[in-house]
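Please check the following for our workbook:

***
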Amino acid sequence: MLNTEALTSELRNVFEEKQALAIVKVVTKAVAESQQELVKAKDFNELKEIIKQIGEKINELAGAQQGTEKRVGELANAQQETEKRVGKLAEIAQRTEERMEELARAQQKTEERMEELAQAIKSLTEVEKDTREQLGGLSKSMGYALENEAFRFLPVYFQNLGLEITEKFIRTEIDGEEINLFARGRKNGKEVIIVGESDLRLTKAWKKIEQIERKVAVVQKNFPDAEIVKVLVTHYAKPAVAEKIKEKGIILLPSYEWI
């Protein structure tokens, strides 16, 4: 007799409940039909062989089922690893996005600071320009003050040199050339014209010498018979500069000698 309970118990170890019961049902039916037909020993042996083969097939199916379950487990593990990696990538992406936002905020602050710096530089430039203009105006005022003092001092100075001033010192313009110190006089019965410049601080000789020579040339052109006396008044001149100016026949008069 076929022990269905034992067969069912064995099949439950491999298959699910419904699958095990279905297999037992098929085998039981085949055995019952064989017994009803009173099969011979030879046929029964064939049936036993068939049952054996069915058992082998069942074992093969069980092995395949186990392999499938193993692969499903491996796939589940792989899926789990994939999900972990995806999670890590998501975290990295989140951190990257946060970092990009921080960089964007830092960039905005940098741009704001650059704008503030540009405004500060603009303000400093305007202040510097205004300061230069004020210094330029102050320099001109001091230059005019020096010339005004020279107007009072020079007549006495030249009188001591035997030169009589016949027309007082003035500022004038001749042929478009500005003459800062201009006066007419006589010495030994000969007409003399004094042409001069002023400079608060003489640190370069050639530029001032060139300027005086240009003005002298204009005056000489308009007064060809007059003797030209070149004079330069200053508060201070470097010794080397003073030496070069004197070499050009220019009378150098520092203001401290007026006292």
